[in-house]
Amino acid sequence: MRARIGLFGGTFDPVHYGHLRLAESALSECGLDRIVFIPAAMPPHKAASELTPFHHRVEMLRLALHDRTEFECSLVEAQLPVPTYTVETLRNFHRQYAPDTDFYFLTGLDAFLEIQTWKEYNRLLAMASFVVSEREREKLAPLKAQLAGELGYSTAGHMWKSNDDRLPIYFLTKAPLTVSSSTIRRKIRLGEPINDMVPEVVYRYIRANKLYQGKAGQ
Ligand code: ATP
């Protein structure tokens, strides 16, 4: 049987229950064997000064994932040339894994709607099936419909299909959580509680390392 591996890229600054809900939904709805979380070392759309140092983001991920054997964290983006483009990360995974592996790339709808700005996005859509969690579903519905037309996919229920080598795109049915990393960073700066938004171990790590208490924008 072919292996089904989920790849979940993000800044994870910090990782939160919204990320974990997306991963759990993808695992069960798409029947994945496991999910590799891939923290971005230096994503093309963010300045280095905006990001918490890589080792802190990785450590928070490790803590958040340690009790789920199906979830792991990859440091591959720290080894690739910067800025790191998802298509290069995917090429790296295709090289490392057996040819009978199918890859599923997890995203929120907000990120997926930007797909046409990603490097070699049509190639990317042929290298992994995108699995999309419909964050802000009502607000983004018109843009989603527009994107299907622009990319030339036909829509069938929770799936989009192409008539070329691009793989199907799946939309998860389980509702996402509304939490975001930027909300968490803002709440910490304002001294508001965040402990229902991140696992307890992540909360303790943030406190112990005094993360996110600094200047606005962080
Ligand atoms: P920020 O608020 O700083 O933009 P974020 O919460 O969106 O951060 P990222 O690490 O940038 O977190 O997100 C990684 C991926 O996870 C993106 O594809 C994003 O759309 C998705 N994602 C993040 N939070 C959620 C959520 N609550 N529900 C569904 N998808 C999410």
Gist of the model:
By secondary structure, the chain is of the alpha/beta class. It is built from 9 helices and 8 strands. It has one domain: HUPs (Rossmann fold), CATH 3.40.50.620.
Secondary structure blueprint with pairings:
Blueprint: E1 3-10, H1 17-29, E2 34-39, H2 54-65, E3 71-73, H3 76-79, H4 86-96, E4 101-108, H5 109-112, H6 121-127, E5 129-133, H7 137-151, E6 154-156, E7 159-161, E8 169-171, H8 181-189, H9 200-208
Parallel strand pairs: 1-2, 1-4, 2-3, 4-5, 5-8
Antiparallel strand pairs: 6-7, 7-8
The chain binds adenosine-5'-triphosphate.
List its salient traits.
218 residues; alpha/beta; Rossmann fold; eight-stranded mixed sheet; 8 strands; globular; binds adenosine-5'-triphosphate
